[in-house]
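Obj: model holo form, ligand = tryptophan.
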Amino acid sequence: MNFKNPAIANEAKKSYKRILTGDRPTGPLHLGHYCGSLKNRVDLQDKYETFILIADVQALTTNFEHPDKLKENILQITMDYLSAGISPEKSTIIIQSMVPGISDLTIFFSMFVTANALRHNPTIKTEAKERGYKELNYGFLGYPVSQTADIAVFKADLVPVGIDQLPHIELARKIVRRFNDLYGETLIEPEALLSNFPKLVGLDGNLKMSKSYGNAIYLSDDIETIRSKIKMALTDKARIHPNDPGHPDICTIFSYHKAFSEENMIKTTEYECKNGKIGCVQCKNNLFIRIKALIEPMNEKREYYKKHVPEIWDILLLGTGKAKTIAEVTLKEVRSHMKLDYFE
Ligand code: TRP
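Output (holo structure tokens):
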């Protein structure tokens, strides 16, 4: 193959590890996202070449009636990334629907997977159940295939995921192996970089912080909103007076201390709560101080980006442009290995 463009020539000799992560742009990110993946990505971008995919097509699989929301959601999620410390110099942020190579590869991959295997995919099953779907549309059923294309088209080596996404990575590995066996070594078999951060519980004590449960603290919340959300949060119901012995293991606020406070504070809080030496009000205030320290700098950065929206679109244009070039190179190889390069 003849590489004239230096960026592409470099791509052919790719010798560094690349990671790919992704989110559906379905709404603002909250502290659960921050603890579960965003914080990790901010660290990973110093160690790996980091690609972050805004999976707008995947968002459409469950939201196709409302494509008009996507543009605003893409802007918001990018602001969340940038405010939380994702650096456009270190990370490439990509809009999925603007990279045609992803859809091309999805079609080629779709022959390697049976509809039945997708119907039995545990993550698809759980999600379909949560959403109350009886019938699955073709796009939703097939999103793990397009997710495989997301990963393979950029030749990502590693995919940081939570445990719920593991079946998708297994599928991606299978598809890539199948492709390489059939047509010759072309694509990289990706590995999961399993993150074992526990899920953040909701402010209402629900097992999961989630937009749909209305129990989240958003990275874009202002400090006063956060103060009142923490004030309202559920604690140990059995505790009425500050000197009643508490049960930190079942307390939402204590679980947040474990996620956001320093080791010393966690130990002291646990001891003082169990022994009725600290009231919930004081304990919540200690937590608020920690979360404020985390969010305040994010708010400041967000204020900057709110005033410089064209800068955000430039970052997305640049990232997506780079991604398109890489995807084109991969697709050229793919077509050549599949003997579909008729005009070459
Ligand atoms: N399915 C992921 C989610 O819902 C988002 C996603 C799309 C993704 N493409 C990806 C994650 C590729 C990792 C790799 O959160």
